[in-house]
Specification:
- By secondary structure, the protein is an alpha+beta fold.
- It starts with 16 loop residues before the first strand and ends with a strand.
Length: about 220
């Protein structure tokens, strides 16, 4: 009789999708609230969005235990920063900190796929997209998670950002108004939910602008 080895992994993928869109004076970050493992739904009410600073929000998919550990590390580092500098960390600074934190764990990575959104020092919307080991880029819009392969082509079609090779460099922010961006996000999630079994239940949308932060919710398919 052949010996069978236990097929154990320190990681799991809890599914779900995240989207962020940056505008001239706003940023929209959205994620669904379904958390799954395999063909089981663990909960329909899990928020994947975390506010890291006053003008900086992170949405994460992947392994939610690693995401929680990552959020705790970033929260602690941000508290130290506030004590040392007597101010909140800016979104581009938080983007670099997140990259460093992920890269530090590159030999046993946080299995989390993050998109960071907020307002930069000039009040412009900014979105940063990441892989699991900290490689990141500032973009006008991005998507991560199980539904990203369905969502990204849709966003490319609607928002097509200018090539980074063009000179002089064009701004990455999208030309849509805040209301149009929110409607687009709701449309892409309604579309992705039809085809991706790991995305669904409810959509949480966080809108950041000069007047502060607010949340909107929309029901998605529950099957």
């Amino acid at each position: 009789m052949t010996k069978q080895h236990a097929n154990w992994s320190p990681y799991d993928n809890n599914g779900g999708s995240c989207v962020a869109i940056a505008g001239a004076d706003y940023c929209v970050i959205a994620a669904d609230t379904r958390m799954s493992t395999g063909y089981n739904i663990l909960t329909r009410e899990y928020s994947k969005i975390s506010q890291l600073a006053e003008k900086c929000v992170m949405a994460s998919s992947g392994f939610q235990a690693d995401v929680k550990a990552l959020q705790k590390v970033l929260s602690a580092r941000h508290l130290i920063y506030q004590h040392q500098h007597n101010k909140q960390m800016s979104c581009p600074a938080m983007a670099q900190l997140l990259s460093n934190t992920l890269y530090y764990k590159r030999f046993f990575p946080y299995y989390s796929f993050n998109v960071l959104g907020g307002l930069d020092n000039e009040g412009k919307g900014c979105v940063f997209t990441y892989d699991a080991v900290g490689s990141y880029e500032r973009v006008g819009y991005s998507s991560q998670g199980s539904g990203s392969t369905l969502i990204m082509p849709f966003l490319d079609n609607q928002l097509k950002s200018p090539s980074p090779l063009l000179l002089p460099a064009k701004d990455a922010v999208t030309p849509l108004s805040e209301t149009e961006a929110i409607d687009l996000v709701k449309t892409v999630f309604a579309s992705a939910t039809e085809r991706d079994i790991y995305t669904g239940d409810k959509l949480e949308v966080v809108i950041l602008n000069a007047s502060g932060i607010r949340r909107e919710y929309m029901d998605l398919r529950k099957d």
